[in-house]
Specification:
The chain contains five helices and five strands, in the order ααβαβαβαββ. By secondary structure, the chain is α+β, with helices and mostly antiparallel strands. The protein folds into two domains: about 35 residues; about 120 residues, Ribosomal Protein S8, Chain: A, domain 1 (2-Layer Sandwich). The chain has a five-stranded mixed β-sheet with strand order 1-4-5-3-2, sandwiched between helices. α4 crosses α5. The radius of gyration is 38 Å and the shape is elongated. It starts with a helix and ends with a strand.
Length: about 200
């Protein structure tokens, strides 16, 4: 009984809404007059295919990783100047800058000690340190690689590798072996590019 009454009320509401719509449509026709639809010119809808997505950020990240990657197989000996202490400078850096670096002209602004690190750990730590130092605007830093006194055969493990890695970093303008008071044969003084 209740269902029937609810259904009847709903039917009445729908019928009233239909009558109202019909009355409004008729009123519109009387107000506006006869309406002729506009002719539609034939139209072709082209489906534009969006360009294939390009992973630009991933490519930029990969380029940056390649720039920051340091290789153990890089031949640094041809780039080092042979003098009382092996040094390196980029072609655009004057020999005077290397002399000033050797004499301690620039104040030491940061350092990293690679003692006790394995080769891969040292490479990663050095790369990050150089990158961070250059971004912070540091000009002169010290890299302590050790003299190798604790290594098997008392041969320095990191000494030659650190030189190879530093030459590959674009932020490094020059480096020299540190003075005895700054670590001597167990450290390098590094001149960085100001970013």
């Amino acid at each position: 009984m209740l269902r029937r009454r609810l259904a009847e009320e709903r039917a009445e509401r729908e019928a009233a809404a239909a009558r109202l719509r019909e009355r409004e449509a008729r009123l519109f026709e009387l107000s506006v007059g006869v309406v002729t639809p506009l002719a539609q010119p034939p139209r072709v809808l082209h489906r534009l295919t969006p360009p294939a997505p390009e992973p630009r950020q991933r490519e930029a990240d990969e380029r940056l990783a390649l720039q920051q990657a340091l290789s153990d197989d890089f031949d640094v000996d041809s780039l080092l100047e042979t003098d009382e202490s092996l040094s390196f400078r980029r072609p655009e850096i004057s020999p005077e800058a290397v002399r000033k670096l050797r004499r301690g002209h620039w104040a030491l602004q940061g350092q990293i000690d690679l003692h006790g690190l394995r080769r891969d750990q040292a490479r990663e730590a050095l790369g990050q340190f150089i990158h961070d130092s250059a971004r912070r605007g540091l000009r002169c830093v010290r890299v302590v690689h050790g003299k190798g006194n604790g290594s098997p055969g008392r041969e320095p493990v990191l000494k030659s590798r650190v030189r190879r890695w530093l030459v590959q970093k674009q932020e490094v303008l020059a480096f020299v072996q540190a003075r005895a008071s700054d670590g001597g044969a167990g450290a390098l003084m590094v001149l960085l590019m100001q970013v």
